TrEMBL record:
Residues 44-154, 199-277, 348-465 form the Plastocyanin-like domain. Coiled coil: none annotated. This is Oxidase. It comes from the Bacteria. It comes from Leucothrix pacifica. Pfam families: Cu-oxidase, Cu-oxidase_2, Cu-oxidase_3.
Protein backbone atom coordinates (compact mmCIF):
# COMPACT_ATOMS: atom_id res chain seq x y z
CA UNK A 1 0.00 0.00 0.00
CA UNK A 2 1.31 3.39 -0.88
CA UNK A 3 1.19 6.26 1.56
CA UNK A 4 1.43 8.91 -1.11
CA UNK A 5 -2.01 8.24 -2.49
CA UNK A 6 -4.72 10.33 -0.98
CA UNK A 7 -7.12 7.42 -1.07
CA UNK A 8 -9.65 8.05 1.64
CA UNK A 9 -8.68 11.40 3.02
CA UNK A 10 -11.07 14.25 2.45
CA UNK A 11 -8.46 16.77 3.58
CA UNK A 12 -7.08 19.07 0.90
CA UNK A 13 -3.80 17.83 -0.55
CA UNK A 14 -0.87 20.18 -0.01
CA UNK A 15 1.08 19.77 -3.15
CA UNK A 16 4.31 21.08 -4.63
CA UNK A 17 3.57 19.61 -8.04
CA UNK A 18 4.64 21.73 -10.96
CA UNK A 19 1.85 23.04 -13.19
CA UNK A 20 1.81 21.35 -16.59
CA UNK A 21 0.99 23.28 -19.75
CA UNK A 22 -0.46 20.79 -22.25
CA UNK A 23 1.53 20.50 -25.48
CA UNK A 24 0.14 22.67 -28.23
CA UNK A 25 -0.70 20.92 -31.49
CA UNK A 26 -0.77 23.56 -34.18
CA UNK A 27 -1.15 20.95 -36.89
CA UNK A 28 0.53 20.69 -40.27
CA UNK A 29 -0.68 23.39 -42.57
CA UNK A 30 -1.10 22.90 -46.30
CA UNK A 31 -2.92 25.83 -47.83
CA UNK A 32 -6.11 26.45 -45.91
CA UNK A 33 -6.13 22.97 -44.41
CA UNK A 34 -4.64 22.19 -41.02
CA UNK A 35 -3.95 18.51 -40.42
CA UNK A 36 -3.94 16.99 -36.95
CA UNK A 37 -3.22 13.39 -35.98
CA UNK A 38 -4.61 12.12 -32.73
CA UNK A 39 -4.08 8.66 -31.33
CA UNK A 40 -6.20 7.32 -28.48
CA UNK A 41 -4.15 4.89 -26.44
CA UNK A 42 -3.83 2.95 -23.20
CA UNK A 43 -1.15 4.15 -20.85
CA UNK A 44 0.18 4.63 -17.33
CA UNK A 45 0.49 7.98 -15.59
CA UNK A 46 2.27 8.91 -12.35
CA UNK A 47 -0.09 11.33 -10.61
CA UNK A 48 1.78 10.46 -7.40
CA UNK A 49 5.51 9.95 -7.38
CA UNK A 50 6.44 6.33 -7.98
CA UNK A 51 2.82 5.19 -8.26
CA UNK A 52 1.57 4.04 -11.66
CA UNK A 53 -2.04 4.68 -12.52
CA UNK A 54 -3.67 3.04 -15.55
CA UNK A 55 -5.00 5.79 -17.82
CA UNK A 56 -6.16 6.58 -21.34
CA UNK A 57 -4.53 9.37 -23.30
CA UNK A 58 -4.42 11.14 -26.64
CA UNK A 59 -0.88 11.37 -28.06
CA UNK A 60 0.28 11.22 -24.43
CA UNK A 61 -0.46 9.22 -21.31
CA UNK A 62 -3.40 11.25 -19.92
CA UNK A 63 -5.61 13.84 -21.68
CA UNK A 64 -4.56 15.21 -25.07
CA UNK A 65 -2.75 18.14 -26.67
CA UNK A 66 -4.41 21.53 -27.06
CA UNK A 67 -5.52 21.86 -30.68
CA UNK A 68 -5.47 25.32 -32.19
CA UNK A 69 -7.00 26.66 -35.39
CA UNK A 70 -8.42 29.88 -36.80
CA UNK A 71 -11.74 30.93 -38.24
CA UNK A 72 -11.66 30.19 -41.96
CA UNK A 73 -9.28 27.24 -41.53
CA UNK A 74 -10.29 23.84 -42.71
CA UNK A 75 -9.26 21.28 -40.13
CA UNK A 76 -8.65 17.66 -41.00
CA UNK A 77 -8.27 15.56 -37.88
CA UNK A 78 -7.33 11.91 -38.16
CA UNK A 79 -8.27 10.03 -35.01
CA UNK A 80 -6.80 6.57 -34.50
CA UNK A 81 -8.28 4.37 -31.80
CA UNK A 82 -5.93 1.99 -29.99
CA UNK A 83 -7.67 1.70 -26.62
CA UNK A 84 -8.95 -1.85 -27.10
CA UNK A 85 -12.65 -0.97 -27.35
CA UNK A 86 -14.76 1.37 -29.44
CA UNK A 87 -14.50 5.10 -28.87
CA UNK A 88 -15.27 8.48 -30.47
CA UNK A 89 -13.94 12.00 -30.32
CA UNK A 90 -16.50 14.80 -30.17
CA UNK A 91 -15.72 18.49 -30.76
CA UNK A 92 -17.70 20.16 -27.98
CA UNK A 93 -18.96 23.63 -28.89
CA UNK A 94 -18.13 23.32 -32.58
CA UNK A 95 -20.60 24.19 -35.33
CA UNK A 96 -20.08 21.50 -37.92
CA UNK A 97 -21.75 18.86 -40.11
CA UNK A 98 -23.29 16.05 -38.07
CA UNK A 99 -21.14 13.38 -39.73
CA UNK A 100 -18.02 15.18 -38.39
CA UNK A 101 -19.35 15.78 -34.87
CA UNK A 102 -17.80 12.73 -33.23
CA UNK A 103 -20.91 11.80 -31.32
CA UNK A 104 -22.16 8.25 -30.63
CA UNK A 105 -22.94 7.74 -34.35
CA UNK A 106 -19.29 8.17 -35.35
CA UNK A 107 -17.86 5.28 -33.39
CA UNK A 108 -14.27 4.36 -34.19
CA UNK A 109 -13.72 0.64 -33.72
CA UNK A 110 -10.55 -0.42 -31.97
CA UNK A 111 -7.65 -0.43 -34.41
CA UNK A 112 -9.44 1.84 -36.88
CA UNK A 113 -9.16 5.50 -37.82
CA UNK A 114 -11.72 8.20 -38.50
CA UNK A 115 -11.20 11.47 -40.34
CA UNK A 116 -13.15 14.52 -39.23
CA UNK A 117 -12.92 17.41 -41.64
CA UNK A 118 -14.74 20.72 -41.40
CA UNK A 119 -14.33 24.46 -41.76
CA UNK A 120 -14.08 26.63 -38.66
CA UNK A 121 -16.98 29.07 -39.02
CA UNK A 122 -17.17 30.53 -35.55
CA UNK A 123 -15.38 33.12 -33.51
CA UNK A 124 -12.40 32.89 -31.19
CA UNK A 125 -13.21 30.73 -28.18
CA UNK A 126 -12.02 27.90 -25.99
CA UNK A 127 -13.73 24.67 -27.01
CA UNK A 128 -12.86 21.13 -26.02
CA UNK A 129 -12.99 17.56 -27.26
CA UNK A 130 -13.78 14.29 -25.55
CA UNK A 131 -14.97 10.74 -26.01
CA UNK A 132 -18.71 10.44 -26.64
CA UNK A 133 -18.93 6.66 -26.83
CA UNK A 134 -22.45 5.40 -26.12
CA UNK A 135 -22.77 4.37 -22.42
CA UNK A 136 -18.97 4.74 -22.00
CA UNK A 137 -18.45 8.49 -22.12
CA UNK A 138 -18.16 8.80 -18.34
CA UNK A 139 -15.53 6.09 -17.98
CA UNK A 140 -13.51 7.07 -21.06
CA UNK A 141 -13.34 10.75 -20.13
CA UNK A 142 -12.60 9.85 -16.51
CA UNK A 143 -9.58 7.78 -17.56
CA UNK A 144 -8.29 10.57 -19.80
CA UNK A 145 -9.92 10.98 -23.23
CA UNK A 146 -10.33 14.77 -23.35
CA UNK A 147 -8.48 17.91 -24.39
CA UNK A 148 -8.95 21.57 -25.31
CA UNK A 149 -9.48 23.14 -28.73
CA UNK A 150 -8.59 26.83 -28.98
CA UNK A 151 -10.06 28.88 -31.82
CA UNK A 152 -8.64 32.22 -32.94
CA UNK A 153 -9.99 34.78 -35.36
CA UNK A 154 -8.70 37.94 -36.99
CA UNK A 155 -9.84 40.17 -34.14
CA UNK A 156 -8.79 38.04 -31.22
CA UNK A 157 -5.12 39.01 -31.35
CA UNK A 158 -6.01 42.68 -31.70
CA UNK A 159 -7.68 42.94 -28.33
CA UNK A 160 -4.47 43.50 -26.40
CA UNK A 161 -5.06 40.43 -24.26
CA UNK A 162 -2.31 38.17 -22.96
CA UNK A 163 -1.86 35.56 -25.70
CA UNK A 164 1.51 33.88 -25.24
CA UNK A 165 0.57 30.23 -24.89
CA UNK A 166 1.73 28.74 -21.61
CA UNK A 167 3.35 32.01 -20.52
CA UNK A 168 0.46 34.39 -19.89
CA UNK A 169 -2.32 32.53 -21.73
CA UNK A 170 -2.82 29.38 -19.77
CA UNK A 171 -5.25 26.51 -20.28
CA UNK A 172 -6.57 24.95 -17.07
CA UNK A 173 -8.61 21.75 -17.35
CA UNK A 174 -10.03 21.12 -13.90
CA UNK A 175 -11.05 17.58 -12.95
CA UNK A 176 -11.73 15.67 -9.75
CA UNK A 177 -10.69 12.06 -9.43
CA UNK A 178 -10.74 9.31 -6.82
CA UNK A 179 -7.80 6.95 -6.38
CA UNK A 180 -7.71 3.45 -4.98
CA UNK A 181 -5.04 2.37 -2.54
CA UNK A 182 -3.11 0.65 -5.33
CA UNK A 183 -2.89 3.95 -7.17
CA UNK A 184 -5.44 3.15 -9.84
CA UNK A 185 -8.47 5.30 -10.44
CA UNK A 186 -11.71 4.11 -9.00
CA UNK A 187 -14.79 4.72 -11.12
CA UNK A 188 -18.33 4.33 -9.71
CA UNK A 189 -18.17 2.61 -6.35
CA UNK A 190 -21.73 3.08 -5.25
CA UNK A 191 -25.31 3.84 -6.08
CA UNK A 192 -24.53 7.39 -4.95
CA UNK A 193 -21.89 7.78 -7.70
CA UNK A 194 -24.31 6.41 -10.24
CA UNK A 195 -27.12 8.74 -9.21
CA UNK A 196 -25.26 11.96 -8.45
CA UNK A 197 -22.44 11.45 -10.93
CA UNK A 198 -18.82 10.57 -10.25
CA UNK A 199 -17.11 13.02 -7.94
CA UNK A 200 -13.56 12.58 -6.68
CA UNK A 201 -11.63 13.85 -3.66
CA UNK A 202 -8.43 14.75 -5.53
CA UNK A 203 -8.25 17.73 -7.87
CA UNK A 204 -6.22 17.62 -11.07
CA UNK A 205 -5.40 20.59 -13.28
CA UNK A 206 -4.16 19.46 -16.71
CA UNK A 207 -3.59 16.05 -15.17
CA UNK A 208 -1.49 17.24 -12.23
CA UNK A 209 -2.68 17.02 -8.61
CA UNK A 210 -3.38 20.55 -7.23
CA UNK A 211 -0.39 22.07 -9.04
CA UNK A 212 1.63 25.20 -8.38
CA UNK A 213 1.83 27.60 -11.32
CA UNK A 214 4.91 29.82 -11.18
CA UNK A 215 3.52 32.93 -12.83
CA UNK A 216 5.80 34.64 -15.33
CA UNK A 217 3.77 37.77 -16.06
CA UNK A 218 1.85 40.17 -13.83
CA UNK A 219 -1.35 39.74 -15.83
CA UNK A 220 -2.51 36.19 -16.48
CA UNK A 221 -5.20 34.92 -18.78
CA UNK A 222 -6.58 31.61 -17.53
CA UNK A 223 -8.79 29.50 -19.77
CA UNK A 224 -10.76 27.69 -17.07
CA UNK A 225 -12.40 24.51 -18.25
CA UNK A 226 -14.49 22.14 -16.17
CA UNK A 227 -13.50 18.73 -17.57
CA UNK A 228 -14.91 16.84 -14.59
CA UNK A 229 -17.55 14.15 -14.86
CA UNK A 230 -20.07 15.68 -12.46
CA UNK A 231 -18.76 18.33 -10.08
CA UNK A 232 -19.72 22.00 -10.28
CA UNK A 233 -17.04 24.37 -8.95
CA UNK A 234 -17.55 27.72 -7.27
CA UNK A 235 -14.13 29.26 -7.88
CA UNK A 236 -12.53 32.11 -5.95
CA UNK A 237 -9.06 33.13 -4.79
CA UNK A 238 -7.95 32.49 -1.22
CA UNK A 239 -7.41 36.22 -0.62
CA UNK A 240 -10.76 37.06 -2.21
CA UNK A 241 -9.15 39.20 -4.88
CA UNK A 242 -11.32 40.27 -7.76
CA UNK A 243 -10.63 39.22 -11.33
CA UNK A 244 -12.14 39.79 -14.77
CA UNK A 245 -14.25 37.41 -16.81
CA UNK A 246 -13.60 37.97 -20.53
CA UNK A 247 -15.15 35.00 -22.33
CA UNK A 248 -17.74 32.28 -21.92
CA UNK A 249 -18.17 28.98 -23.81
CA UNK A 250 -18.60 30.42 -27.29
CA UNK A 251 -16.41 33.53 -27.26
CA UNK A 252 -15.70 36.96 -25.79
CA UNK A 253 -18.10 39.01 -23.72
CA UNK A 254 -18.77 42.61 -24.75
CA UNK A 255 -16.52 43.85 -21.95
CA UNK A 256 -14.63 42.36 -19.00
CA UNK A 257 -16.83 41.67 -15.98
CA UNK A 258 -15.24 42.04 -12.55
CA UNK A 259 -16.10 39.28 -10.09
CA UNK A 260 -14.72 37.66 -6.95
CA UNK A 261 -16.06 34.23 -7.66
CA UNK A 262 -17.63 32.28 -10.48
CA UNK A 263 -19.49 29.08 -11.02
CA UNK A 264 -18.17 26.55 -13.51
CA UNK A 265 -20.37 23.55 -14.30
CA UNK A 266 -19.28 20.44 -16.18
CA UNK A 267 -18.46 21.21 -19.80
CA UNK A 268 -18.32 24.99 -19.34
CA UNK A 269 -15.33 27.19 -20.14
CA UNK A 270 -14.74 30.68 -18.77
CA UNK A 271 -11.71 32.83 -19.59
CA UNK A 272 -10.48 35.20 -16.90
CA UNK A 273 -7.76 37.80 -16.40
CA UNK A 274 -6.00 37.79 -13.04
CA UNK A 275 -3.70 40.58 -11.92
CA UNK A 276 -0.85 39.08 -9.88
CA UNK A 277 1.39 42.14 -9.81
CA UNK A 278 1.28 42.06 -6.00
CA UNK A 279 3.69 39.08 -6.19
CA UNK A 280 1.79 36.99 -3.70
CA UNK A 281 1.24 33.27 -3.47
CA UNK A 282 -2.46 32.69 -3.78
CA UNK A 283 -4.73 29.67 -4.06
CA UNK A 284 -7.51 29.23 -6.57
CA UNK A 285 -10.10 27.46 -4.47
CA UNK A 286 -13.52 25.97 -4.87
CA UNK A 287 -16.31 26.14 -2.42
CA UNK A 288 -17.75 22.69 -1.77
CA UNK A 289 -20.24 21.99 -4.53
CA UNK A 290 -22.84 24.65 -5.13
CA UNK A 291 -24.68 22.97 -7.95
CA UNK A 292 -25.76 19.90 -6.09
CA UNK A 293 -28.83 18.88 -4.29
CA UNK A 294 -29.47 17.61 -0.81
CA UNK A 295 -27.03 14.71 -0.92
CA UNK A 296 -24.08 16.90 -1.79
CA UNK A 297 -24.86 19.28 0.99
CA UNK A 298 -24.82 16.43 3.46
CA UNK A 299 -21.43 15.18 2.29
CA UNK A 300 -19.97 18.62 1.73
CA UNK A 301 -19.87 21.34 4.30
CA UNK A 302 -18.68 24.74 3.22
CA UNK A 303 -14.93 24.36 3.63
CA UNK A 304 -13.18 25.45 0.43
CA UNK A 305 -10.60 23.16 -1.17
CA UNK A 306 -7.59 24.09 -3.28
CA UNK A 307 -7.70 23.68 -7.04
CA UNK A 308 -4.27 25.17 -7.80
CA UNK A 309 -1.75 27.63 -6.40
CA UNK A 310 -0.40 30.66 -8.25
CA UNK A 311 3.05 31.70 -7.09
CA UNK A 312 3.67 35.22 -8.40
CA UNK A 313 6.94 35.91 -6.59
CA UNK A 314 8.97 36.01 -9.83
CA UNK A 315 6.60 37.83 -12.18
CA UNK A 316 7.76 40.23 -14.85
CA UNK A 317 5.67 43.28 -15.68
CA UNK A 318 3.06 42.38 -18.28
CA UNK A 319 2.88 44.40 -21.49
CA UNK A 320 -0.90 44.05 -21.34
CA UNK A 321 -3.58 45.85 -19.40
CA UNK A 322 -7.18 44.95 -18.83
CA UNK A 323 -9.11 46.27 -21.83
CA UNK A 324 -12.22 48.39 -21.29
CA UNK A 325 -14.20 46.65 -23.99
CA UNK A 326 -13.72 43.44 -25.91
CA UNK A 327 -15.94 43.28 -28.92
CA UNK A 328 -19.38 44.03 -30.22
CA UNK A 329 -21.59 41.21 -29.05
CA UNK A 330 -23.55 39.12 -31.48
CA UNK A 331 -27.11 40.34 -31.23
CA UNK A 332 -29.30 37.93 -29.32
CA UNK A 333 -31.91 36.55 -31.72
CA UNK A 334 -35.26 38.23 -31.22
CA UNK A 335 -37.67 35.86 -29.43
CA UNK A 336 -40.34 37.06 -31.87
CA UNK A 337 -38.35 35.42 -34.66
CA UNK A 338 -38.47 32.02 -32.99
CA UNK A 339 -40.57 29.70 -35.12
CA UNK A 340 -40.83 27.12 -32.37
CA UNK A 341 -40.67 26.79 -28.59
CA UNK A 342 -39.78 23.36 -27.24
CA UNK A 343 -39.95 22.02 -23.71
CA UNK A 344 -37.32 19.78 -22.14
CA UNK A 345 -38.01 18.23 -18.78
CA UNK A 346 -34.90 16.79 -17.10
CA UNK A 347 -35.89 13.78 -15.03
CA UNK A 348 -34.11 11.33 -12.80
CA UNK A 349 -35.83 8.47 -11.05
CA UNK A 350 -34.57 7.52 -7.63
CA UNK A 351 -34.56 3.89 -6.60
CA UNK A 352 -35.91 0.80 -8.33
CA UNK A 353 -39.19 2.32 -9.46
CA UNK A 354 -37.81 5.68 -10.47
CA UNK A 355 -37.65 5.16 -14.21
CA UNK A 356 -34.02 6.20 -14.58
CA UNK A 357 -32.56 9.19 -16.37
CA UNK A 358 -34.85 10.76 -18.96
CA UNK A 359 -35.71 13.90 -20.89
CA UNK A 360 -39.46 14.36 -21.38
CA UNK A 361 -40.09 10.86 -20.09
CA UNK A 362 -37.78 9.17 -22.56
CA UNK A 363 -34.38 7.62 -22.10
CA UNK A 364 -31.86 7.96 -24.93
CA UNK A 365 -32.41 5.53 -27.79
CA UNK A 366 -29.79 5.74 -30.51
CA UNK A 367 -32.32 4.56 -33.11
CA UNK A 368 -34.90 7.25 -32.23
CA UNK A 369 -34.75 10.80 -33.60
CA UNK A 370 -36.57 12.98 -31.09
CA UNK A 371 -37.33 15.91 -33.41
CA UNK A 372 -36.27 17.89 -36.46
CA UNK A 373 -35.21 21.51 -36.60
CA UNK A 374 -35.03 23.63 -39.73
CA UNK A 375 -31.68 24.94 -40.81
CA UNK A 376 -31.16 28.69 -40.31
CA UNK A 377 -34.27 28.79 -38.11
CA UNK A 378 -34.49 30.24 -34.62
CA UNK A 379 -35.97 28.29 -31.71
CA UNK A 380 -36.50 28.80 -28.00
CA UNK A 381 -35.86 25.83 -25.74
CA UNK A 382 -37.33 25.80 -22.25
CA UNK A 383 -35.32 23.50 -20.04
CA UNK A 384 -37.09 22.55 -16.82
CA UNK A 385 -35.57 20.78 -13.84
CA UNK A 386 -37.89 19.36 -11.19
CA UNK A 387 -35.37 16.68 -10.21
CA UNK A 388 -33.49 16.77 -6.88
CA UNK A 389 -30.19 18.09 -8.30
CA UNK A 390 -28.70 20.49 -10.86
CA UNK A 391 -27.98 19.38 -14.44
CA UNK A 392 -25.69 21.10 -16.99
CA UNK A 393 -27.65 21.01 -20.26
CA UNK A 394 -25.61 20.91 -23.47
CA UNK A 395 -26.61 21.17 -27.15
CA UNK A 396 -24.41 20.11 -30.06
CA UNK A 397 -23.71 22.25 -33.12
CA UNK A 398 -24.91 25.57 -31.72
CA UNK A 399 -23.85 28.44 -29.52
CA UNK A 400 -26.96 29.76 -27.79
CA UNK A 401 -27.95 32.70 -25.61
CA UNK A 402 -29.70 32.40 -22.26
CA UNK A 403 -32.95 34.38 -22.36
CA UNK A 404 -33.81 33.97 -18.69
CA UNK A 405 -33.68 31.81 -15.56
CA UNK A 406 -37.09 31.51 -13.94
CA UNK A 407 -38.00 34.69 -15.79
CA UNK A 408 -34.92 36.61 -14.59
CA UNK A 409 -32.33 37.94 -17.03
CA UNK A 410 -28.97 36.11 -16.94
CA UNK A 411 -25.94 37.65 -15.22
CA UNK A 412 -23.42 39.50 -17.37
CA UNK A 413 -21.14 36.45 -17.31
CA UNK A 414 -23.95 34.33 -18.68
CA UNK A 415 -25.08 36.78 -21.32
CA UNK A 416 -22.48 35.71 -23.90
CA UNK A 417 -22.44 32.71 -26.19
CA UNK A 418 -22.97 29.38 -24.43
CA UNK A 419 -23.18 25.73 -25.36
CA UNK A 420 -23.75 24.38 -21.85
CA UNK A 421 -25.96 25.83 -19.14
CA UNK A 422 -26.46 24.68 -15.56
CA UNK A 423 -30.13 24.23 -14.74
CA UNK A 424 -30.64 24.28 -10.98
CA UNK A 425 -33.33 22.25 -9.33
CA UNK A 426 -36.64 24.06 -9.52
CA UNK A 427 -35.44 26.18 -12.41
CA UNK A 428 -36.73 26.78 -15.92
CA UNK A 429 -33.98 28.13 -18.16
CA UNK A 430 -34.94 29.49 -21.57
CA UNK A 431 -32.31 29.51 -24.29
CA UNK A 432 -32.53 30.87 -27.82
CA UNK A 433 -30.52 29.85 -30.84
CA UNK A 434 -30.36 29.95 -34.59
CA UNK A 435 -29.31 26.64 -36.08
CA UNK A 436 -26.46 26.70 -38.59
CA UNK A 437 -27.03 25.83 -42.19
CA UNK A 438 -25.66 22.29 -42.09
CA UNK A 439 -28.15 19.71 -43.23
CA UNK A 440 -25.84 17.31 -44.96
CA UNK A 441 -27.29 14.09 -43.64
CA UNK A 442 -29.82 12.20 -41.63
CA UNK A 443 -27.28 11.92 -38.86
CA UNK A 444 -28.49 13.43 -35.58
CA UNK A 445 -26.89 15.82 -33.14
CA UNK A 446 -27.18 15.27 -29.40
CA UNK A 447 -28.56 17.32 -26.53
CA UNK A 448 -27.96 16.03 -23.03
CA UNK A 449 -27.04 16.51 -19.42
CA UNK A 450 -23.25 16.89 -19.24
CA UNK A 451 -22.98 15.00 -15.98
CA UNK A 452 -21.45 12.10 -17.85
CA UNK A 453 -23.05 9.37 -15.74
CA UNK A 454 -26.47 10.92 -16.40
CA UNK A 455 -25.76 11.09 -20.12
CA UNK A 456 -24.57 7.46 -20.15
CA UNK A 457 -27.72 6.34 -18.36
CA UNK A 458 -30.07 8.04 -20.77
CA UNK A 459 -30.46 11.78 -20.06
CA UNK A 460 -29.82 12.49 -23.73
CA UNK A 461 -31.78 12.94 -26.94
CA UNK A 462 -31.20 13.45 -30.65
CA UNK A 463 -32.28 15.99 -33.27
CA UNK A 464 -31.60 16.40 -36.95
CA UNK A 465 -31.23 19.63 -38.91
CA UNK A 466 -33.26 19.51 -42.13
CU1 LIG B 1 -19.31 17.70 -24.41
CU2 LIG B 1 -22.35 15.80 -26.20
O1 LIG B 1 -20.79 16.72 -25.35
CU1 LIG C 1 -20.88 18.64 -27.33
CU1 LIG D 1 -27.76 15.43 -14.97
Amino acid sequence: MSTTVNADSTKPVRSTNTFAVPPLASGKRSGKTVNFNLKLGVSQTQFFKGVNTATLGINQSYLGPVLRAKRGDKVRITVENQIGVGSTLHWHGMMLPASMDGGPHQEIKNGESWVSEYEIKQEASTLWYHSHQMHQTGAQVYYGLAGLFILDDDDSHQLGLPHEYGVDDIPCTIQDRRFKRDGNLSYIDSMHDRMMGMEGNTILVNGVVTPVLKAQRSLLRLRLHNGSNARTYQLAFSDERSFQVIASDGGFLAAPVTVKSLRLAVGERIEVLVDVSDRKVVQLQSQQSSGGGMMRMMSGGSEPFTVMTIDAKQVKESAHTIPKTLRAMKAIPDPKDAIKTRQFDLQMGMGMMGGGFRINGKSMDISRIDFEVKRNSTEIWEVRNDSPMAHPFHVHNVQFHILDRNGKKPTQIESGLKDTVLVQRGEVVRIIMTFPEYSDSKIPYMYHCHILEHEDQGMMGQFVVV
